[in-house]
Structures are given as structure tokens and as C-alpha cells.
């Protein structure tokens, strides 16, 4: 059994795999990391290997806690990867994006794949049909856009994502919702269309915490997979056992 831990900007995600199948996945606040890890090893005592990925600096204590129970691999730029990385600054590439590229490489082999991760930021990552990671884009996520409008103006309120009834807002709040939600939808559809002009037979995967919010609203055909990043981390764990 494998345990993968993804320490993100706002939450920590945990997943237990056996022979490539997800047995458990859950997210929690980082403040209960120790109790969550203990709970997982009580539930799944056969876990032998773990991988920890973090978008920020990993505290030694987190690695040490997990290493009390099993062998631990901390995902870094020194880790082995199965795909060719053509990013111009590979040492700045986030581990979450590395995991998404690995998942695309294994799950859609020898095909052009664009992975869109709608989380704190919206990331776009492209793996071509030669198994080469060529790069992508990073833009503000939906909640970041709401916060930016609230924090950088005097009077705009802090709103939560909401369904828009019309793209023309007739109040301050509905105008803000239209600007954020419609703006993100137009961005994602536009980016997909751009990539389709360059890459033939493009497969688009949508994942991340806000993927459910956008999946049915996009015009382009996409495949939604909320576990795509966790699956990529498990592939990388298996690859680095060798």
C-alpha cells in the first residue's frame, strides 16, 4: 500500500493506494496533520511507502512524523520523473504541476494532453504526444479573484462563488459574480481553443477543488477527474521506488 500526501496552499490532501486503486482520499486542515496521519496508519497498517508533496517549504517535522510509520519520499526537483521536462526553469516548476504532468503521461500515453487544475491558482500544463512536458500557464483562481477585488478596493464586498443567471450584472454583487465566474469560464474555454489550434487530437483534463463548479459550464469538451493529481503522485512514488 502507498500513502500520498499533497500539502497545498490551503488544505492537505491524503490518499491511500493499493495496486494503483484509490482506497481512501480526504482533505483536512494542516493543523490536524499529526492526528490525521496516525488515523490513516491505524486504518491501513499495511502502508509501506509514502510520498509527500508540498507547494511550499516542507517542515522537517511533517516528514519525520510520517517516517515513524513507513519509508518516505519527499517529492523534489531531485526526484526521478518519467517524462521529458522541457520547462526552461525546471527548478521552479511546482511539485503539483510535476504530478499532473506525470498523471497525463501515464493515463494518456503518446497523446496530446492539457491538464487544467482549478485550485487556489488555475494552472495549465501541457504534455505532448512525444511524452514531453512543454509548459503551460498560471492564473488567479476563482476565490483569489474575489479576494483581490475586495482587498484592493474600498467598497467591494468579499463574495463566495455563485451561479450567474446572466452575464450582464444588474447590481454590484451580480456584476462581480459575472466578472469572476464568466471571466474564468471565458479564460478556460479560450485557452483550450488556443491549444487546439497547435495540438491535434487534444485531450483536456479538468481537476482541482473548483473543477466541479466549472465542469458543466464549459463549452469545450473536457474530462473531469478530481483525483488526477493524487494519482500522479502515486505514479511518481512507484517510479521513485526503482
Alpha carbon gap, first and last residue: 16 Å
Strand line-up across the major sheet: 6-9-8-7-10-11
Order of helices and strands: EEEHEHEEHEEEHHEHEH
Number of strands: 11
Count of alpha and pi helical runs: 7
**Stretches with pLDDT under 50, minimum 5 residues:** none
Classify the beta-strand content into a percent band. Answer: 25-35%
Shape: globular
Give the structural class: alpha/beta
Binned, the helix content reads 25-40%
Mean pLDDT: 94
Biggest sheet overview? 6 strands, mixed
Rg calc: 19 Å
Descriptive account of the structure:
By secondary structure, the chain is an alpha/beta fold. It contains seven helices and eleven strands. The protein has helices at residues 33-43, 60-67, 95-107, 142-151, 172-198, 211-215, 228-240; strands spanning 2-7, 12-18, 21-28, 49-54, 71-74, 84-85, 113-118, 121-127, 132-140, 203-207, 223-224. The strands form two sheets. Strands 6-9-8-7-10-11 form a six-stranded mixed sheet, with helices on both faces. A five-stranded mixed sheet has the order 3-2-1-4-5, sandwiched between helices. β4, α2 (60-67) and β5 (71-74) form a beta-alpha-beta unit. α4 (142-151) packs across α5.
What is the structure about, briefly put?
With 242 residues, this protein is of the alpha/beta class.
Amino acid at each position: 500500500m502507498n500513502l500520498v500526501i499533497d500539502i497545498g496552499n490551503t488544505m492537505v490532501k491524503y490518499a491511500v493506494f493499493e495496486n494503483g486503486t484509490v482506497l481512501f482520499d480526504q482533505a483536512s486542515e494542516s493543523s490536524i496533520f499529526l492526528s490525521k496521519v496516525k488515523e490513516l496508519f491505524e486504518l491501513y497498517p499495511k502502508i509501506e511507502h509514502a510520498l509527500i508533496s508540498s507547494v511550499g517549504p516542507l517542515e522537517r517535522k511533517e516528514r519525520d512524523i510520517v517516517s515513524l510509520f513507513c519509508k518516505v519520499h519527499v517529492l523534489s526537483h531531485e526526484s526521478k520523473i518519467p517524462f521529458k521536462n522541457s520547462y526552461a526553469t525546471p527548478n521552479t516548476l511546482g511539485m503539483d504541476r510535476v504530478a499532473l504532468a506525470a498523471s497525463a503521461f501515464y493515463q494518456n500515453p503518446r497523446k496530446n494532453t492539457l491538464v487544467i487544475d482549478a485550485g487556489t491558482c488555475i494552472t495549465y500544463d501541457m504534455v505532448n504526444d512525444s511524452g514531453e512536458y512543454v509548459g503551460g500557464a498560471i492564473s488567479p483562481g476563482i476565490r483569489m479573484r474575489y479576494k483581490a477585488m475586495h482587498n484592493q478596493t474600498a467598497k467591494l464586498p468579499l463574495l463566495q462563488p455563485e451561479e450567474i443567471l446572466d452575464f450582464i450584472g444588474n447590481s454590484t454583487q451580480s456584476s462581480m459574480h459575472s466578472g469572476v465566474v464568466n471571466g474564468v469560464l471565458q479564460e478556460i474555454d479560450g485557452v483550450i481553443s488556443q491549444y487546439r489550434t497547435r495540438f491535434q487530437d487534444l485531450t483536456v483534463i479538468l481537476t482541482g477543488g473548483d473543477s466541479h463548479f466549472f465542469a458543466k459550464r464549459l463549452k469545450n469538451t473536457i474530462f473531469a477527474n478530481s483525483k488526477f493529481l493524487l494519482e500522479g503522485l502515486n505514479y511518481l512514488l512507484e517510479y521513485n521506488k526503482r
